[in-house]
Design goal:
about 0% strand; about 70% helix; 4 strands; about 375 residues; two-stranded antiparallel sheet; globular; 13 helices
Length: about 375
């Protein structure tokens, strides 16, 4: 048995300064604390009132930010560009959607215990994969287990075969596209092209109330914070430094007696499960899940968020998710036909002029300012 020889591991991951990430944590806590006050207790006519639309938009973007954070772990710190994270996001959403569909009960259009789309298709009983869909505990487990198991199996064979680079990106995109085609089919029991919608309750409580919307909003913010702290701990640990060594010189790591497979497989699976949780939080806030969430564009957008904000920074992809989706929300209203052109131009511009993203630019400007200050000092 080969004993791993010592290799020079990278220094702990270069994050922002302590004050930087502390400020981010404080800002996230403040948003989660202030938003309910502005939405529930400030009168609608006030300039300080936060509308239901704004709450839903912020909640949705925080779900996307979790996906961007997951992408940073696998791409920024491990050097593996995945174009399939939209699949894991959608799988978590579908698991939650199945539970919410069962919560409708006999309040559907057909007054049946079966979901409306099954009654329309003349189904007489639930498919086998709906067996645990009425249990909230089972749903919570499956939200992480389904994307986690699929990612583990896929990743094991891909990494074992030493597939990397653009080839890995292509097969993750192919896997996502194949899953989308599968979910479009009515006979699979996932609602076909319409997916799941018209949700009414969660845990027996109405979904449409302001209190429930704010509860989901705060829960999403707390989840983002927990995942950020988990990611920060991971990348600063020895495990995270090995991941960065694999990213920078995988062959050297192998020659030193380490097997990259378990490291890559572990972070790939964790990243997929994070996306599954994000999808599960997204569905009750948005009110719909369909195969369109598995589209190629969605998976590419996740990579764009990470690139725009700045890879291997943790905070950067979160910032990128807010910047891109904030712009998307505005442009899809004011100039919907130009949104995709803007996204493409943004990605090209970042690649050419901001390779380290927005956070990288801020760090560079701060460093230059410090040099000027030191140079001006007597």
């Amino acid at each position: 048995m080969t004993t791993p020889s010592p290799i020079q591991l990278p220094a702990p991951a270069p994050l922002l300064t302590r004050s930087g990430w502390s400020a981010f944590i404080v800002a996230l806590i403040v948003v989660c604390a202030v938003a309910p006050v502005l939405n529930l207790w400030v009168p609608a006519g006030s300039a300080f009132h936060l509308s239901d639309y704004a709450v839903a938009l912020l909640g949705k973007i925080m779900c996307y930010a979790i996906c961007a954070l997951a992408m940073d772990l696998i791409w920024g710190y491990t050097g593996i560009l995945s174009l399939g994270h939209g699949l894991f996001f959608a799988l978590g959403g579908y698991v939650m959607g199945m539970y919410l569909m069962r919560q409708i009960g006999r309040d559907g259009n057909y007054k049946s215990d079966l979901p409306d789309f099954m009654v329309f298709l003349d189904w007489k009983e639930l498919p086998w994969h709906w067996a645990l869909s009425d249990s909230f505990v089972a749903t919570l487990i499956l939200i992480v287990a389904v994307p986690g198991v699929i990612a583990f199996v896929f990743g094991y064979f891909a990494f074992r075969s030493r597939i990397k680079g653009v080839y890995f990106s292509i097969i993750t995109q192919a896997m996502t596209y194949a899953a989308m085609l599968l979910f479009f089919r009515n006979e699979t029991g996932f609602g076909g092209n319409n997916g799941f919608t018209d949700f009414k309750r969660i845990l027996g409580m109405p979904l449409a109330t302001q209190n429930m919307r704010m509860t989901l909003f705060v829960l999403t913010g707390v989840t983002l914070l927990v995942f950020f702290l988990l990611a920060r701990w991971l990348v600063r640990s020895k495990f995270g430094r090995v991941l960065q060594a694999v990213r920078d010189a995988e062959t050297r790591v192998m020659f030193s007696g380490y097997s990259p497979l378990p490291y890559k497989l572990t972070i790939w699976t964790i990243s997929a499960m994070m996306c599954g949780v994000a999808g599960a939080l997204y569905v009750p806030q948005v009110g719909i899940i369909n195969p369109g969430e598995m589209s190629a564009a969605n998976s590419i957008e996740i990579a764009v968020w990470a690139a725009v904000g700045g890879r291997a920074t943790l905070i950067g992809p979160i910032v990128g998710a807010f910047i891109v989706n904030g712009a998307k929300s505005w442009l899809t209203v004011t100039a919907p036909e130009f949104w995709l052109y803007f996204l493409g131009a943004l990605f090209i511009a970042v690649t050419l002029f901001l390779p380290d993203g927005v956070v990288g630019l801020v760090k560079k400007l701060k460093k230059n300012n410090n040099k000027k200050t030191e140079g001006a000092a007597p």
